[in-house]
Amino acid sequence: MTENTALLVMDVQQGIMNRVTDPGYLPRVVRAIDAARRAGIPVLYVVVGFRPGHPETTRRNRTFGALPAGVFTPEDPGAAVHPDVEPRPGDILITKRRISAFAGSDLELVLRARGIDHLVLAGVATSGVVLSTLRQAADLDYRLTVLTDGCYDPDPEVHRVLTEKVFPRQADVVTVEKWASAPA
C-alpha cells in the first residue's frame, strides 16, 4: 500500500553530486521522484547541514570534523539540493547532522506524524547515508525498499556487495524502473 510509504532522496546535494560520475544517476532519481508523486507517495529530501561554525561537529568525527568552515551551512551553495531533483511545494526537507538520515534530525517524528512505516531509499553514497539509514530504520521496524540504481557509491564493488548481499537481509532491493512501474 502506498499510503504508508515515503521516498527518501538522501544527500543529493550540489556539493556531493559533483563527485558522482554516472551520468544516468540523476535521471533515474528523477524517474523515482516522478513515480512517487504520481502515486501520491510523499517525497522527503534528506540533506546534511550544519549551523555556521559547525557547532554540531567535533574533530573526533573523521567524516565531519575535518570539513572546512562554511561547508554544508545555509550560506554554502553546495548544501542545496541538486536542481534536477529540486523539492517542490509539499515536499519535506529533513536536515541531518551525521551520516544516517535519523541522526540529529526530526525524520522519525515526521514519519510517525504521517503514519509512514515503509521507506524507499535512494541517495549518495550507498556505503554512507543509505547503509546507515537502512540499518537504523530496520532497527526501528520500518519496512524498507532500496532502489539499487537510485543509489550511488564511488566504489562500484562496495555498491554491488551492499545491494546484492547486505541490503537484501533487511530490505527489498529493486531497480528504479521496477519500482516506478508499481510503487509501493
Automatic annotation (TrEMBL):
Query: Keywords in UniProt for this one?
Result: Hydrolase
Q: Gene3D superfamilies, alphabetically?
A: Isochorismatase-like
**What GO molecular-function term can you cite, just one?**
hydrolase activity
Pfam families hit by this protein: Isochorismatase
Keyword set includes Protein biosynthesis: no
Please list the residue ranges annotated as the Isochorismatase-like domain.
Answer: 5-177
What InterPro entries does the annotation carry?
A: Isochorismatase-like_dom, Isochorismatase-like_hydrls, Isochorismatase-like_sf
Task: Report the protein name in the record.
Answer: Cysteine hydrolase
Q: Which organism is it from?
A: Actinoallomurus spadix
